[in-house]
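> @MW can you paste both from yesterday?
MW: sure, first one:
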Amino acid sequence: MIAARRIASVDALRGLAVAAMLLVNNPGDWGHVYAPLQHAAWHGFTPTDLIFPFFLFIVGVSAALALGPRVEGGAVPAPLCAAIVQRGLRIIALGLVLHALAWWLLNKPEFRVLGVLQRIGICFIAVGLVAVQLRARGQWVLLILLLVGYAALLQFASPTLEKVGSLNQRIDTAVLGRFAYEWNAATGVAFDPEGLLSTLGALATTVLGLLCGGLLRRDQPRAVLLTGVAAALVGWWWSTWLPWNKQLWTPSFALWTGGLAAVALAAAHVWIDRLGHRAIGRAFGLNAIGAYAGAWMCTLLLAATGWMAPLYGNVFGPLGAVVGPAGQSLAFAVAFVAVWAAIVWVLDKAGWYWKV
C-alpha cells in the first residue's frame, strides 16, 4: 500500500469532488434536472464538468505527496512501481465488478468495459509511474507532449470534432464496439465518454495535479495558484479554436479545468491548512472510492428491486408540488448525499477506511 502524507485540504477537495459526483449522478428523475447539474451536451462547459477533472487532479496531487518523499529518499523504484500497478489494477477491477453487477441486475443488453473507476485506475497507474521515473522537468515535458500531441491528433488526424466521425469515435468503434457506453447495433457505431483516445487528455489533467502536488509538498501555494491561473487562461485561450469538450477531454478542457482545480487547491490549502478552518468534505475524501462504490451499489439495488420509483414518488412527491419537478429531483439528490455523508462520518469516527 502507498500511504500518502495527509494534508487536510487535499482530503477535503477529494471528498467534495466525490460528494458532487453523488449529487449529479443521483437526481431521482433524469427528466427534470437543473441545467448546471448536467454535463454539457457536447462542446461547452457546465459546473458539473468540473467534478471528474477535479478528482483526477487530486489523484495527481496525492501521488506527489505519497511518492515524492520516497523517491527523494532513495527508495528502490521496482517495489514502488509494483505497488502502484497493483493498486491501480484493483481500482480497475472494482469498476469492472460494478459494471458487471449493473449488467446482470438491470438486464443491460451489453457490458461496458470502460468507466469512471477504470479511468481513475489507468490514470493512477500512469501518473504513479511518472512520479517514480521522472523529476519535475521531465513531468513538465510529458505534460506538454500530452497536450500538444493529443491536440495534433484531434485537429489533423480527426475528420471532425463532432461525436460521429471523430477519431475518438472511430477508435472506440474499432476497439470497444458493443462494449462501449454508447453502441448502435444498427450502424455499428460506438462511443465512450471515458474512451481510449480521450484518456490522453485525462492523463494530462492528472499530470498537472502531480506537478502542483510537488509544489504543495514544497510549501509553495503561491506557485500552485499561479500555475492554476496560467493553465486556466491558456485553456480558455485555446478553446477559441479547440473547444472545451469533456467527452473528448480536449487539451483546452484539460487545462481549463485543471487550472481551476489548482486555484481551488491553493485556496483550500491557505483556508484549511494555514488558517485552520474546518476541512469540510474530509470524511468523504478519506473514504473516497468506498463512498463512490457504495453509492453505486445503493442506486443499483434501489433500481433493481423496484424501490427507487416508490421512494422518489412517495417521499419526495409532496415536495415536488411546492418546488416543482426539478426542485424535487434536487431534493432527492441532496438527501442521497446527506445519507452518505452520515455514513462516511460514522466510518471516520470509528477509524474505518476502505482502501482499494
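MW: second:
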Amino acid sequence: MDEEYDAIVLGTGLKECILSGLLSVSGKKVLHMDRNKYYGGESASITPLEDLFAKFNMPVEGLNLEEYGRSRDWNVDLIPKFLMANGQLVKLLIHTGVTRYLEFKSCEGSYVYKAGKIHKVPADEKEALASGLMGMFEKRRFRNFLVYIQEFNFDEEKTWKDVNPNITTSLQLYEKFGLDKDTHDFTGHALALFRDDLYLAQPCGELIRRVKLYSDSLARFGKSPYLYPLYGLGELPQGFARLSAIYGGTYMLEKPIDEIVLENGKVVGVKSGGETAKCKQVFCDPTYVPDRVEKTGQVIRCICLMNHPIPNTRDSLSCQIIIPQKQVGRKSDIYVSMVSYTHQVASKNWFVAMVSTTVETANPEAEIKPGLDLLGPIKQKFVHISDVYKPKDLGEESQIFVSQSYDATSHFETTCADVVDTFRRATGEDFDFSKVQHDNCEVLE
C-alpha cells in the first residue's frame, strides 16, 4: 500500500462504485476500499434469506422458513430503486459498457394514488383518454398538454407557443392548458417525479424535461418507463467495480479505515491496518467521515415479503406506485415499489414490496401506513429508519468528496445527479463519454 494514487474511494455503495469506474476510465489511478466484506454498502442486496432476518436482528427460530422456498433464491435490496429507461444511469451503463455484466427486465406498471384508489399513470394520448384519473373534458386537456410537450423543442422557439421555459412557471403552464389540481398532482409527482410542490413556482423548463424523459423512457420498452436488473441492485455496484478494474482500478474489501490523513487541511492519504496509502483525493459515503457531514432528515423504508402481487395492479409482477403528498395530507410523497421471482430476487411465486418516505413526524411507521394498506396480506416485514446526511462543504479545500445519503425515491435520477455533480466538483469537468471503449451493448436482451 505504499503506492501513490490519484484517488482513493471508500465504501462500495453504488455511488462510490460508479465514481471509481468513471475516474478509472478517465485515466486516474484508483484504489477502492471497503470495511465490509461485501459490495454495495447501504445499497447492497441481501442473500440468502436468513441473512436478511439477521440484518434486522430478527430471530428465525419458530419461523417456517421452508414456506419461503429456497433461501438462496432471495436477493433482497436494502434500498430498492428502478432505473428510468432513458435516464442518466442507463446512459452511464451503456456508455461505459457495464451492461455486458447485467440483464434487465422492464417494470410492468407505473401507478399513482388518488382518492383512496390506484390508477395506471397515463403516459400517452391513448392511455390518457382511457384513464379513470380524469373526467372526459380533463382527458382532452391533458392529451393536448402531452402533445404540446412531445412537440416542444428547447432549440426551436416556434414550438414554445407563448411559453418561455426559463420564465413561465410550471403552475402557469398547467393553467395555460386548463388542467385541474389533481392533474397537476399526478403529472408533477408520478410523471415528472418531483418530491414536493416547490416546482410549481419555478420555471417550467425542468417540468417539460422530466415529462419528456418519462415519455421517452416509456417509448423504449412499452409497459412502463422503468427497468430493474435481474438478481437485484447489488449487481450494479459490482458491474462498475469490474469496469474500474478493467481500467486499472485496485479493490480491497474487509479493510478497516483507521484514518484519513490530512496535511494543512488537505488530504494526503488513507491509513488502514498500520499502512498508509498516499493519494490526492478521497471519495466516500457519509459513514466514513461523520465530522464532515450534517444530518438533514430521516427516511423510513419497510421491506415486505408477500406471496401475491399488489391488488388492483392487473396482477403485475413488478410495479411502482407513487402516493402524492397532498392525497394523504403530507409534505412529501410515499413510494411503493414491487419486484418478484421473475427478477431472480425471490423464490418461485414470491414478491418483495418496499414502502418508503421521508420522515415528518415522531411516528414514522404510521406515515407509511397508506402505502402498506395497498399491499394486501404481508407475510413478513422489515422496518428500517435511516438518517440522511449531506456534506458540510463541497470538498474543494480538503479534496475529500462526500456523497449524499440515498433519499426515499424509488428511482435513480437523484442518485445519478449526485454522482455527476461530485465528479464535476472533483475533476472540474463533465465526464467525457468518448473516453470509453464502446461495444454497442444494449440494455435489454
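> thanks! The chain has a mean pLDDT of 92.
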